[in-house]
TrEMBL record:
Classification of source organism: Bacteria, Bacillati, Actinomycetota, Actinomycetes, Propionibacteriales
Keywords: Transferase
Protein name: Glycosyl transferase
Domain Glycosyltransferase 2-like: 9-128
Keyword Iron: no
Organism of this sequence: Nocardioides currus
Length: 296
C-alpha cells in the first residue's frame, strides 16, 4: 500500500501524521512525502533521509499548487507497480494503528472494488473531537445501516452529487483504477469529488466500511473554506455541478443529473455563511452567498 502525502503546511503536524504511519500494526505500506516547496526546511530535515527505507521524500523545484501537487502524487503512486493500494493522506491527519490493516482487509473482501471509505473520526486543530454542521450533514447523507455498503453506478453518483459525504484523505484506491483518471487543474477545491465521479462514471464501485481507523482534521481555514469566504469556491462549485449535470445526462443517469442541478447541500453550505457575512458587514460576501444559494 502506497501512502502519498501532498505536503504543504505546519511541519509539526506532518510529524504527527508520519508518526501515525510508523505506528501501523500491518507493515505492508510505504509512504512518499511530496513537498510543494514549503519554506520551512524542517520536513526535509526530518523525513528527507529517514532510516526507515519505506519512507521517501521529494521536494518540488517549483510550487505546483494544490491541484498540481495532487496530480504529481497520483503519477508517483500509479508508477509504483509494487503497490496495489493507494491513499492520498493529508499532511495533518492521523492514521489509527489499524488503518493499513483495515484497508487490506476490505480490499481482500472486495478485490474488484476500486474505492474504500473507512471509518473516520473528526478532530479540530487541537486534536479534540469535532462535530460541527458539516459532520452532521455528512452523517445524514451517508449510507445507513450496520455493516459494509457497496455502492456504484447512478445510485452512487446521485448520492455524491446530492452532497459529498466522503472524507477524501481516508479513501483507499486500487492503483490500477487511478491510472484511468487525473486530477483537474481547474478545480483546486473540489478536485477530490471530481476524480471520484470520474471513476464512478467509468464503472468503479465504492465500499463503505464502518471500522473507525482514521482521524480527519477539520480546520476552520482550510483551502476550501477560504475559497468559500472569497467566493472562489462558489464559482467553482456552480461550474462543476453544471458540467456534471450535462455529463450525467449524456451518461443516461437522469437522477444524478437532477441532483447536480439541484446541488442543495452546496446551496445550504453557502447559506450557513450568511450570518458571518452580516457580522462583517461584507456586501460582497452577502451577494456571493445569495448568488450561489439562489441561482439555478
Amino acid at each position: 500500500m502506497h501512502l502519498v502525502v501532498a505536503y504543504w503546511g505546519d511541519p509539526a503536524l506532518l510529524d504527527l501524521t508520519m508518526r501515525s504511519v510508523l505506528a501501523q500494526t500491518d507493515p505492508r505500506w510505504r509512504v512518499t512525502v511530496i513537498d510543494d516547496g514549503y519554506p520551512d526546511p524542517a520536513a526535509q530535515q526530518t523525513w528527507g533521509e529517514h532510516t526507515d527505507e519505506r519512507i521517501s521524500y521529494q521536494r518540488n523545484d517549483v510550487n505546483l499548487g494544490v491541484a498540481g501537487n495532487f496530480e504529481k502524487a497520483r503519477q508517483v503512486a500509479v508508477a509504483d507497480e509494487d503497490a496495489d493500494l493507494v491513499a492520498f493522506l493529508g499532511s495533518d491527519d492521523l492514521l489509527h494503528p489499524t488503518y493499513v490493516a483495515n484497508a487490506w482487509r476490505v480490499h481482500e473482501q472486495h478485490p474488484d472494488v476500486d474505492i474504500v471509505q473507512l471509518g473516520v473520526r473528526v478532530i479540530d486543530e487541537a486534536g479534540e473531537p469535532a462535530d460541527g454542521l458539516t459532520e452532521r450533514i455528512k452523517r445524514a447523507l451517508m449510507p445507513r445501516g450496520a455493516g459494509q455498503h457497496v455502492l456504484g453506478g447512478e445510485t452512487l453518483a446521485t448520492s455524491l452529487l446530492r452532497g459529498n459525504w466522503l472524507y477524501w484523505p481516508s479513501l483507499v484506491f486500487r492503483r490500477e483504477a487511478l491510472g484511468r483518471v487525473a486530477f483537474r487543474a481547474d478545480l483546486p477545491t473540489i478536485l477530490d469529488l471530481a476524480l471520484v465521479l470520474d471513476l464512478v462514471s467509468g464503472g468503479s464501485r465504492l465500499v463503505v466500511d464502518p471500522a473507525v481507523c482514521f482521524s480527519y482534521r477539520r480546520h476552520a481555514q482550510s483551502a476550501s473554506s477560504q475559497g468559500l469566504h472569497t467566493g472562489d469556491r462558489f464559482d467553482e462549485d456552480r461550474r462543476f455541478f453544471a458540467e456534471s449535470a450535462g455529463r450525467m445526462d449524456a451518461h443516461g443517469w437522469p437522477r444524478a443529473a437532477r441532483a447536480a442541478r439541484r446541488r442543495w447541500v452546496s446551496r445550504l453550505h453557502a447559506l450557513t455563511l450568511a450570518p458571518a457575512a452580516l457580522r462583517l458587514r461584507s456586501g460582497d460576501q452577502l451577494r456571493a452567498v445569495a448568488r450561489h444559494a439562489l441561482r439555478r
